[in-house]
């Protein structure tokens, strides 16, 4: 087994990896920016190396400094967590060249799945249902209009290099096509340096449901059921749960088989997710593949009793996958606690946490790197904690989540806790009747800052 793993990330995911490594008897190296010198992942790692100033490009995205840190500390593997360099093919390739195991996808797989048009073509060839649309990138507005007319409006234009909702525009009729085309290209070009677009049928009233998969280096894959990620704001997930309220045993079996087929078609190694849109008729369509561990992986761990970070590490070492497909026997939900003010359009709220009390009790788990006295820097993602609750039924989970949220005290900054409390009280949410557009009509005026 690996003797020492460097975690090329920060915050709660870095601490999460450190905990599993410690249980496995593996030494850890934390890297950190000057802004993160007081973070818990720095305090709990066996070794810690400062790799630069606060801006990500000078620290967590600086491949040269991270590789240097790995060489100096004799780390034989790097775990990238999520975000930052976790889906960077160049970094995966550099690790390979330096003889350091990248605990994630190979550069070839990242390239294949990172480009959405290529990913769609790959999955289509593997027999995975895909959304009707262009076979590749659009060459012109005229080509896009012709295809849109053929498959029927509404359609959606997407940036091939996009993410986080950027470079996407819904087109309801031909009159709006040109403006949507121009806006999407401008936004994607500025954000990703690539303004290429493709077109898909816009799926109405969709749910965002992902299947957790794990593949080994023998070409085999298994799945650990689904997660419903439909509660989103501007394409950013806020709440995830498993099993999905919309799932049936038949649909789970179909989606699970499709996800495994897609993973095995590319010989996928490691933990990842196949992301689907599921329409109101129960038909599902491939959306994208994430070739990394997901923020919301803890809810799968709670209902399957598998440590997914441990599975990542074991698979990277060359051990076979667990080999079974899981159906959840429990229910679990995760609320992302962000340093944002939901009463003011989720405005970021960095600063010092003056007082903090975390909830506890049966079925309650907290993944966090913050504490009373910790100063949240303004340089990174605003998520400061994940509150994960499990139980025997969805109703029990919602009740327990509301209780845990009401116990969760974070003072000195604004957080999304008040929003989550109101969501747990919402009758439509409690009934499981929601789509990815749910928060577009949510009454945020009810939230007290």
Structure description:
This protein is an alpha+beta fold and 449 residues long. It has three domains: 4-103, Rossmann fold, CATH 3.40.50.20; 132-201, 2-Layer Sandwich (Dna Ligase, domain 1); 207-446, 2-Layer Sandwich (D-amino Acid Aminotransferase, Chain A, domain 1). It is 32% helix and 27% strand. The strands form six sheets. Strands 13-12-9-10-11-14-21-19 form an eight-stranded antiparallel sheet, with helices on both faces. A hairpin with a 5-residue loop joins strand 12 (270-278) and strand 13 (284-290). Helix 4 (89-97) packs antiparallel against helix 5 (107-114) and helix 12 runs antiparallel to helix 13 (417-425).
Detail the poorly predicted runs.
none
Rg over C-alpha atoms, rounded to the nearest angstrom: 21 Å
CATH class of the largest domain: Alpha Beta
Lateral strand order in the biggest sheet: 13-12-9-10-11-14-21-19
Can you identify the CATH superfamily of the largest domain? Answer: ATP-grasp fold, B domain
Using the 3D structure, state the CATH architecture of the largest domain. Answer: 2-Layer Sandwich
Approximate strand percentage: 25-35%
Q: Helix count, per DSSP?
A: 14
Overall number of structural domains? 3
